[in-house]
Amino acid sequence: MTKLAANLSMMFNEVDFLDRFDAAASAGFKGVEYLFPYAFPKDAIKEKLEKNGLTQVLFDFYAGDWDAGERGLAIHPDRVGEFQDTVGQALDYAKTLGCTRLTCLAGLAPNEHASDTFTQTLVDNLKFASKQVEGTGITVLLEPINTRDIPGFFVNTTAQGRQIIEAVGADNVKLQYDIYHMQIMEGDLAPTIEANMDVIHHFQIADNPGRNEPGTGEINYDFLLPYIDSLGYDGWVGCEYKPKGKTTDGLGWAKKWLS
Amino acid sequence: MPSLDANLQFMFNEYDVLDRYDAAARAGFKAVELQSPYPFEPEQVKERLERNGLRQILINMPAGDERNVPIRPDRRDQFREFVAQGVKYAEALNCPVINCPPGPAPEGAPADELKATLVENLRYAATEFAKVGTRVLVEAINTRDQPGFFVHTTSDCRAVIQEAAHENLGIQYDVYHMQIMEGDLARTIQANLDLIGHIQIADTPGRNEPGTGEINYDFLLPYIDSLGYEGWVGCEYKPAGRTEDGLGWAGKYL
Q1: Which residues from B are below 8 Å from A208, CB to CB?
Q2: What does pLDDT average to over chain B?
Q3: What are the helix (H) ranges across B131-239?
Q4: Is A40 on the interface with B (CB under 8 A)?
Q5: Given a cut of 80, is residue A259 above it in pLDDT?
Q6: A–B: how many Cβ contacts below 8 A?
Q7: What was the pLDDT predicted at A213?
Q8: What mean pLDDT is predicted for residues A125-146?
Q9: Looking at chain A, which residue has its C-alpha nearest residue B180?
């Protein structure tokens, strides 16, 4: 059965970040994910997880100055040192929080002609991250993102994500498949998911257009989630959507998968 | 409310082609489409339409064996013969749109020559069909089902039509094909509504009834309606079982 994780960067924004753990647990979620934990002491987060019996499913490497528009450091040849520091920082939090998935945001390509350089830097950085997390049970994930919401985002299709992961060639570096992003970029969801099950290690969902709850757009999640299940996927599915109204009011679609 | 028409090439295959007109009407359809009426005399088809109070919404251009005459520089004469035949049927059946799928590119042929041929042919067809009040549409088709298909994205389709620059041309947007090729359905339909003259539907994977795959038609059909789309929506899907048994999804529209 589909295991849903609440994405606390997008859901439960009615309350402060640390209170979202309580809200997610009350709504029936057993796992949580979010972009970044770094603004909070790791012990404060750990306490929230334990108090609520929640699994920390995933968070991202620090991705640069978010408010200034940065969306990842991993493709930039002049920021390799900084990227390596973010791996250490994420690993430190992950060990405390028991988190076994860390997502790497590739970043914005300022110049499409430098594509080969960005790819090579990204591959090298992922190889570094792979070595750092070796033996911890953590998997590093690469996520393709649509270029309408984030113009210039360097990794933006499943095929490109797969190519980079194959170039890294480590079994602890895999793909995060965000159904919303890939519906915008390429469609053909079920066949693409099936063809890439060997490298997909995490899913995220939202409907399109709007990035709201499943059922509000053109994607048939009532088909897709059981389909993913039927392929033998036993990982988590992160609800990375913007609730249309109050988060709990919009959970009707998820009822059959929450306890 | 979306106006659904039955695609009689795909649906009601339990019956002979002409009998499918009767079956579609019995199931509640008010209109039909049929790629190829050409094995029959126009009068035979017309008689079925009248008997059942149906409208013929769409036919295709004659396709020939190779199915790519519209893009073949060496087949311009044959294209014009096909146009003459299409005009005869479109006029007799009072059919508002005719689909002209470009077909698969011959191996090794230069794309710019194929495109130039298509543009020239479309201009000719648009002029001829305008005389009988029929709009000529170009359909992009997915290259998994039809490898090498010459026009396979909405933007390619739009580019060809804009280059031909004739007001009697438009896009046939097949939701199934475009979900396989590009996704982003609602936005693409909205952005191309100015040129879309016909829509076809099926779910994917499988090309079966809406509701059997990854496309949420319960959202998409009302959405298309809300944009002010005034054309028809053709049910070009392969029924998973008996056609009539699989019409539950369409109940509210028939």
Answers
A1: 184, 186-187
A2: 97
A3: 154-164, 175-181, 185-192, 217-226
A4: no
A5: no
A6: 70
A7: 98
A8: 98
A9: A188
- What pLDDT was estimated at residue A200? 98
Which of A182, A190, A217 minimises the CB distance to B219?
A: A217
Q: Which amino acid is at B11?
A: M
Whether residue A185 and residue B186 make contact (CB cut-off 8 A), yes or no, is no
B178, B186, B204 ranked by CB distance to A209: nearest? B186
Of B179, B211, B212, the CB nearest to A187: B179
Q: Do B182 and A187 touch (CB under 8 A)?
A: yes
Question: Residues of A113-143 as b/e, b for ≥16 C-beta within 10 angstroms?
Answer: eeeeebbebbbbbbbbbbebbeeeebbbbbb
CA–CA min distance B188, chain A (Å): 10
At residue B173, φ and ψ (nearest 5 deg) are: -100, 110
Q: Residue A112: is its pLDDT beyond 80?
A: no
CB contact under 8 A, A183 and B183: yes
Two tokens, residue A40: 């909070």
Residue whose structure tokens are 């791996």: A87
The yes-or-no answer on residue B236 being catalytic is yes
Question: Residue A114: pLDDT above 90?
Answer: no
State how far residue A93 is from chain B, nearest Cα, in angstroms.
Answer: 36
pLDDT at A223 over 80: yes
Radius of gyration of chain B (CA): 17
Phi, psi torsion values for A21, nearest 5 degrees: -65, -45
Q: Nearest by CB to B184, from A183, A220, A227: name it.
A: A183
Radius of gyration of chain A (CA): 17
How many angstroms separate the most distant Cα atoms in chain B?
A: 49
Q: Measured between alpha carbons, how far is residue B8 from residues A80, A142, B33, B49, B237 in Å?
A: 60, 46, 6, 12, 10
For residues B175-188, give the mean pLDDT. Answer: 98
Structure tokens at A220: 């048939």
What is the predicted ipTM?
0.95
Please give the Cα distance from B246 to B70 (Å, whole number): 35
pLDDT of B77: 97
Tokens at B123, concatenated: 């201009």
pTM (two decimals): 0.97
Q: With pLDDT > 70 as the criterion, what percentage of chain B qualifies?
A: 100
B99 Cβ contact partners less than 8 Å away, ≥ 6 residues apart: B35, B58, B59, B60, B61, B137, B138, B139, B172, B198
- Asked if B211 has any chain A CB less than 8 Å from its own CB, the reply is yes
